[in-house]
Fold these 2 entries.
Entry 1:
Amino acid sequence: MLKISVITTKTNELTEVTSNIQKLIDEQKINNGICVVFCPHTTAGIIVNEAYDADVKDDIIFSMEKISPSYPDFKHLEGNSSAHVKASLIGNSSNLIVENGKIQLGRWQGIYFAEFDGPRKRELWVKILEII
């Protein structure tokens, strides 16, 4: 298993990790296979979405705040229940196709680490399965 370190600077933030994952694929010399990216944190996740227009990231964060703002009525004592809800909606993993040594993404897509309880130092776990 490989790991990627991600340092976030905001409470809610999307950090693009596409190049980090591609670098691991390059280092492992994987030509064709599946790349599994897993987030081992309960208040963060993984999302594949538009990487061309940075406003999309802001719109996603804005929308997640509307869906699950911090309510004083939440019961979880740590005070980060809204982060747990957001991470549950986004999800904690993504399966990516590797073809001819490259992650296969749509024209505008990128891979993002989604932070909802930052700032923090986090990590992603990556497993690359080669298909011969």
Entry 2:
Amino acid sequence: MKQLLASILILLCVSGCAGVKDAVNPYEENFRCKAKDSEGKCLDTPTAYKEARLPDGQVSEAASNTSQVEAQNSRYKALADLLEAPETPVLNPPKILRVLLLPYKGENNELFMTRYAYLEIEPSQWVLTEVSEKNP
């Protein structure tokens, strides 16, 4: 068994990366679009998505960048408003760790399959601690 494994390893090393690459990915990596003009366009995925959403090219790159900046500015303003309002408490969420449990066999020959366990590493915390309660 060890000799067979060693001979396979030697063959892989001698054949070089090209043989291994062809075995793993049998498809040609140099994609060249061969579509005729009557059959459609050859586009990368982001460009095809933009054309599908806005077929007439209604929004230019500058406009989409401007909208992203405006959205980010509005999020910053909302956060600044929250921090400036002392009566608004803010709660940091807890830190959760996701642990992958691989399949294993139990004591009585039962099989436990792959699953996740979620553990709370740090509890949630109040960020603004000096909150004055208002009585109605």
